[in-house]
Amino acid sequence: MRINRITAAALCAAGVLASQAALSAPMASSTMTPATVTAAAAQDLVTFGVYLPLRHQAELDALLVQLHDKTSPKYQQWLQPADFIAQFGPRPEDIAAVKNALTARGLTIVSTSAHGVRVSGSAAAVQQAFSTPLLKVTRHSHTRFQARQPLSVPSELASIELRVTGLDALPLKHVHARVLGKVPPTAGDNRYSPTGPYWFDDLKQAYDYPAYSSSTDGSGVSVAVLMSDLIYPDDVAAAFNHEKFTAITGKPAPSVTTVAIDGGGVLNGDGSVEASLDVQQVLGGAPGAKVTLVSIPDLSDDHIMDGYQYIIDSNKYDIVNSSFGGCELGYNPAYNDGQDLTYILQQYHDLFQQGNAQGITFVASSGDEAGLECPTPDYLSGGTNATFVTSVSTPAADPDVTAVGGGNLVTTSSTTTLASAYVRESANADPEVPYDIYGLGANVSGGYWGAGGGVSTIFRKPLYQILANTGSSKWRTLPDVGMQVGGCPFGISASCDPDDSAVIIAYDVDDPDNGGFFGLIGTSVSSPEFVGALALYEQQLGKKNHRMGNANYYLYAAGALQTLFGGTKAPAELQFYHRNNPGFNGVVHDSFPSYNYNYVYGNGSPDVRKLFGLTGYKAAGVPQTSTNP
């Protein structure tokens, strides 16, 4: 296969769409399809979650700082799940009270965790237990039940703070990737264009990964990819075989295992392309890592939380990738008929805090609506003048998550070599035509395609962000770092930027008509890509205690050191990040709030060997060679 100077923009402009129809449904969030809405029938089975908040929050916040402070005797003394729950978890008697109250009302406890319970029962029993009628909403064969008014907690639980998930009208999270089109079988490798589209080993040379060896392949590190649906079994091997991994190394292509939560997802479902991208990007950077796809039925909050709960309780995974997100503002009362649902974001935060205390690192894509993640509230009520507003994506906005944004990579290009060395990056977001973001029947105008970033309105500024000029003295900002994202999706209102780029993955390669290799863009590219780099770093920490918890403490310390010694003019050995990348995210230019931190790249894009102390290893060289298979 050879792509003769085909860029991301060219994939779009040239109409390389032979299999776009086959992939358009899996790539779209199920919230994009018009819904069938009816009153819940009494016998309908309803399932939802009930959580209780953590205790001793001040003590927990202090412990998390100590666990990440090299001068503290508690540094990296990670807790086991039972120890965490004993110190900070809800009281067992409160969970027992919840179980008793709900079972007394005819509901069934499906499972119990240290944070709460998963509950099921007939719609009639749920409506009676919480004194509210339910609506039955079906999209893409997924059925959800939504309370038509605020829940009324059973009287005997009035003294216990309950957080109910799965009975609200919040839209599903979005995957953060889009398919540009199928790479023609008569085309070929991406190395003949300075803007790709790129294979995983092109990115490794560009971002200065260490040369491949058993010491720099992520061995011993376990990664969970949380995503809806399943991947085709032969796609990972197809991607690695294309780059001659086995022929060069003599080793089989990496593999992936799957764990199904809440029944898991389906093959070729809404999240399948995204799951394939995530797995291939992680393994592309760290082929020796043990990667598990934690498959959930859809990207609703209750299923996502169940996935995180499994990851945290099992404590088997060192790093977690989440290439999805949604509107942070959408949990506020203005978006929910006056009901404040931000307690759901606090429950996510409780889970992330426990994971960090156990040494688990959470990484999430920062969103693809640039600095304009959310529509105005009137969109939800059918308004015709809805616009996108300055806002950020969740879960990336949580301070216990590393948010990954980025832009467009430009590399060296030659007709005589596969070399893909770093040249520069840019991040000019692509203006979008108005579109119906959640499929509710009204278009939203003023949007941009590009890496998400900006200022949270929910989470306070974390301690580690004191080390950077983030433009806010009060609130958490994102992203934290950036890498290759790409641009030029369908539905933009102007010409593609010349730097717009993409990556290539394998999808359903055993289907000669609809499957093959595809160009993809989005922060779903950069997030798992960075997870692969983190896996190389954690491998160096050793087998006994190789976890790093909240990676942001490390990332901002490195950024502050580079800034202290001159930023882009710091000595070569302190150039941990590529900075001062030009661009615009629909709200501010990438020089804001400073050249050392902005709302598209965060601290910058990494020089992986320098950032993670791997300069003792040779650099990954030309793709498809022994240093970069």
TrEMBL record:
Key words of the record: Calcium, Hydrolase, Metal-binding, Protease, Serine protease, Signal, Zymogen
Domain Peptidase S53: 194-618
Known cofactor(s): Ca(2+)
Keyword Signal: yes
Active site residues according to the UniProt entry: 274 (charge relay system), 278 (charge relay system), 524 (charge relay system)
Pfam families registered for this protein in UniProt: Pro-kuma_activ
Top-level division of the source organism's lineage: Bacteria
UniProt cross-references to SMART domains, sorted A to Z: Pro-kuma_activ
CDD domains per the UniProt record, alphabetical: Pro-peptidase_S53
SUPFAM superfamilies: Protease propeptides/inhibitors, Subtilisin-like
Signal sequence bounds: 1-24
One GO-annotated biological process of the protein: proteolysis
Gene3D superfamilies (UniProt xref): Peptidase S8/S53 domain
GO molecular function: metal ion binding; serine-type endopeptidase activity; tripeptidyl-peptidase activity
InterPro entries recorded: Peptidase_S8/S53_dom_sf, S53_propep, Sedolisin_dom, Tripeptidyl-peptidase_I
UniProt-recorded name of the protein: S8 family serine peptidase
